[in-house]
Design brief:
Layout: H1 3-27, E1 31-33, E2 36-38, H2 40-51, H3 58-65, H4 69-81, E3 85-90, E4 93-101, H5 103-120, H6 129-143
Helix pairs in contact: 3-4
Length: about 150
């Protein structure tokens, strides 16, 4: 490995460390949500459905979460049983399905997210609005890269 590749690896490691510190409180424990106790994976799925820019199919959710199609089926079945997720046919392709949040779940994700943002806001005190805009754009670019 070249020195520049090693340095780049160190920088990526620094980014991952920071992201991990920010997300540890959400993914490492069960989280109260509409009177339920959700796992980190369930919460990730709800966040994905709340913020997806394109329709979310079970296979797209599986790829996002890094799990198998069978695992997503179990996850979605559990979220449907809790009345947090709806499943509907994809327009133009009756074999495919779209996952969406129920209205109650969508409202709770928004409220939950606001609470999380409030609790981590002090960690961002040293960043300007321009810094935050840049950071959000950079992270979105990473997210959109396969």
């Amino acid at each position: 490995m070249t020195a520049s590749a090693e340095r780049r690896g160190d920088l990526v490691s620094d980014v991952l460390e920071s992201v991990t510190l920010l997300t540890t409180g959400l993914t490492g424990r069960r989280v109260p949500f509409l009177g339920r106790s959700l796992t980190g994976t369930q919460l990730q799925a709800l966040y994905r459905l709340a913020h997806a820019r394109v329709p979310v199919t079970p296979s797209r959710l599986a790829a996002y979460l890094g799990v198998t199609a069978g695992a997503v089926t179990q996850l979605v079945d559990g979220l449907r049983a809790e009345q947090l997720v709806d499943v509907a046919p994809l327009p133009g392709d009756a074999r495919s399905r779209i996952l969406t949040l129920t209205p109650a779940a969508a409202a709770e994700v928004l409220a939950f997210e606001r609470g999380v943002v409030g609790s981590v806001m002090p960690r961002f005190a040293g960043l300007s609005d321009d810094d935050l805009t840049t950071l959000a754009a950079l992270l979105a670019r990473i997210e959109d890269t396969p």
